[in-house]
Amino acid sequence: MTQQDLAVLIFVTRQTVNAIEGDKYSPSLEVAFRIAQVFGVPLEQVFHYHTSRGAR
Amino acid sequence: MTLIMSNFTYRQKEITIHLLGNIAILNLFAVYLALYHGPHKLVPLFLFVSWYLPHIYSMLKIHTTDDTRIDERDYQIEAAGTRDGFGLMSFGVFLLLWLRDINASMILKELFLIWLLSRIVIDGKQLRLYAGHASWLPDGFLEWSRRQTLNRISKPSPRLRATATRFVERKGRQ
Asked: Please, are residues B26 and B46 in contact by the beta-carbon 8 Å criterion?
């Protein structure tokens, strides 16, 4: 699946998918759930929250 | 040789054209202000040209093959840019009212200048966010600032710790 294919399925632009993959953008809950739904996995498997994120 | 803006999204191209157009108008307006100190008759003309810019890049939309959809990230970036631009506009208007007597014929030029500068800030901020930065500040400084904040939160001062302890003890006695 390409970024464009995923973008069409979750109703965002390809650039947004690229930004999500590059950790440059945090999607809304709705988009996050759509991504998980597209891949057929739980949300926690797609997105992880790093508690030390602010310390990086 | 890659063309300038060839790897830009449609939205980035749109904002870039708007930004460049407003900078060109600002330069022309600066020349106009320098030459004509008195009458403000040409300000509506500048305003019209600046407002007409969207029509220029709407023609781009007709001929482009780019994805012209606008999604949540675009709205979020637009909101961040608008926030900065309107903040500058508010500050400029406040400064103008503070420094000058209210006289419609005299402040029209200044108001237009403030509006133009705020549009440039809005577009500039959006382009910076699209480029992957988090704000106007250098990314290294932002990371350092976040680390400092996190250290302050995770390691409270002894005085704060003592106050919290007293509060908890007082609650326990009640």
From this structure: no
Q: How many domains does chain A have?
A: 1
* Cβ–Cβ contact B69 with A under 8 A: yes
- Helix (H/G/I), strand (E/B), else coil: B95: helix
pLDDT in tens, A9-19: 999 988 899 99
This model of the complex carries an ipTM of: 0.77
Neighbours of B171 (CB within 10 A): 8
Can you tell me the distance from the alpha carbon of B60 to that of B17, in angstroms, rounded to the nearest whole number? Answer: 10
Question: Could B149 and A14 be called an inter-chain contact, meaning their C-beta atoms sit closer than 8 Å?
Answer: no
With contacts defined as CB-CB under 8 Å, which chain A residues touch B72? 12, 16, 27-28, 31
B74 touches chain A (CB under 8 A): yes
Q: What is the CATH number of the domain that holds A43?
A: 1.10.260.40
Model confidence, pTM: 0.72
Domain assignment of residue A37, given as a range: 3-51
